[in-house]
Design brief:
By secondary structure, the protein is an all-alpha fold. The protein is 90% helix and 0% strand. Helix 1 runs antiparallel to helix 2. The radius of gyration is 22 Å and the shape is rod-shaped.
């Protein structure tokens, strides 16, 4: 498990606790509860977008190598 996954789970648990606290204890304001939830969602999305960017770079390199192999194969015929 990566550190980003652990942080995402911690933020998720904190947002659940704060939301429950708001519903049952009415201590934090609605805006604070919403802010924590939004921060959790934005962090999760940024991590996922970063992972997708890394995967896209490796996929681009693979296609580049594949195109090079096809060019060499057509030259040999």
């Amino acid at each position: 498990m990566k550190i980003t996954d652990i942080i995402i789970w911690i933020l998720f648990l904190i947002s659940i606790v704060i939301a429950g606290w708001y519903v049952f204890g009415n201590l934090p304001t609605f805006e604070e509860t919403l802010l924590i939830l939004i921060i959790s969602i934005l962090f999760t999305l940024s991590v996922k977008v970063g992972q997708m960017g890394t995967k896209m770079n490796s996929l681009e390199k693979s296609f580049s190598h594949l195109a090079k192999d096809f060019k060499e194969h057509t030259k040999n015929k």
